[in-house]
Amino acid sequence: MSIAAAHISAEALSDMIQLFESQSWTKILHEELAELWNICTSREQQVLIRDLIRDFCMFDAEREANACRQFNEQIQQWELKPGSTWIVAVANADEIDGSTAGLQKLKNKVLPYEEWHSRFVSNIPEAAKKIRNGDNIVLFDDFVGSGKKIVRKVAWLKKILEDNAIREMNIFSSCFSGMELGIQYIKDELKIPVFTSISLKRGISDRYKEKDLETAIRTMKDIEAQLSPTYRNKYINEYSLGFNQSEALYCATNDNCPNNVFPVFWWPKKKDGSPFRTLLQRAG
């Protein structure tokens, strides 16, 4: 179906044309955009959705290359050496997630890569077998939302290491992209250095002020009310405004959408039980 054939208003059509120009990744998603506009029950809701998509950060190949380059620069600035440093994805054992996929992209980016490539470890339990007293540990995740996951992972790693009589270590946190509030939470809770290539603001709370903020939050919750309250043992209320109310506007190209993103962009079921063709997809 072409955008011209979609059952949308002239105003909605104008919105979409603007988005095609400002966010090129939306050009192949005109049917999904039309369905998103049609789930809105007011023009105010459509305008909010339009403005949020305008602010969306799609982590494409160019941003990825820049993030990998900056990661290498940060490792050098921290003065870390391969003989005493491990770069560790925050995944559990035998888990494939964004951290393991991102780590693979970094493997030949930290220079000199002939010395560094063997210092990348795909999950925390495997890394715990290799770490020795005095080592440096750079924990890596592709995206940081609230920051609470990293805090939990650090506590878990320290517990495993303590059981192995490893008590002296230097921990660093890193990610390709992260919410400003989440990055600050990690710094405040753990008092460790944190690297991110892209820092992201909350889509609504860091954009609107006072009454406009209240209106925008209420408008988004009205949109969320058009979605199914449950989906595969998940409850929409737990993801309102994004998990932990992160209000994220972020996804990597052809990747799993973080649950910190506003659910209207990835929750695949409408209030009436019918499927909802979303802009982004999330498995798990």
Report on this structure.
This protein starts with 9 loop residues before the first helix and ends in a 32-residue tail after the last strand. A hairpin with a 2-residue loop joins strand 7 and strand 8. The radius of gyration is 21 Å and the shape is elongated. It is α/β, with parallel strands linked by helices. It has a five-stranded parallel sheet with strand order 3-2-4-5-6, sandwiched between helices. A two-stranded parallel ribbon has the order 1-9. A two-stranded antiparallel ribbon has the order 7-8. The protein has ten helices and nine strands.
- Give the N-to-C terminal Cα separation: 29 Å
Q: Which band does the percent of strand residues land in?
A: 15-25%
In the CATH classification, which architecture of the largest domain applies?
3-Layer(aba) Sandwich
Give the strand line-up of the largest sheet.
Answer: 3-2-4-5-6
> Which structural class do you get from the secondary structure elements?
alpha/beta
InterPro entries: PRTase-CE
Domain PRTase-CE: 38-282
Protein name: PRTase-CE domain-containing protein
Write a concise synopsis of the structure shown.
With 284 residues, the protein is of the alpha/beta class.
Q: Can you lay out the helices and strands and say which pair or pack?
A:
Blueprint: H1 10-22, H2 30-39, H3 43-54, E1 57-59, H4 61-77, E2 85-89, H5 98-106, H6 113-116, E3 120-121, H7 124-130, E4 135-144, H8 148-163, E5 169-179, H9 180-190, E6 194-200, H10 210-224, E7 230-231, E8 234-235, E9 250-252
Parallel strand pairs: 1-9, 2-3, 2-4, 4-5, 5-6
Antiparallel strand pairs: 7-8
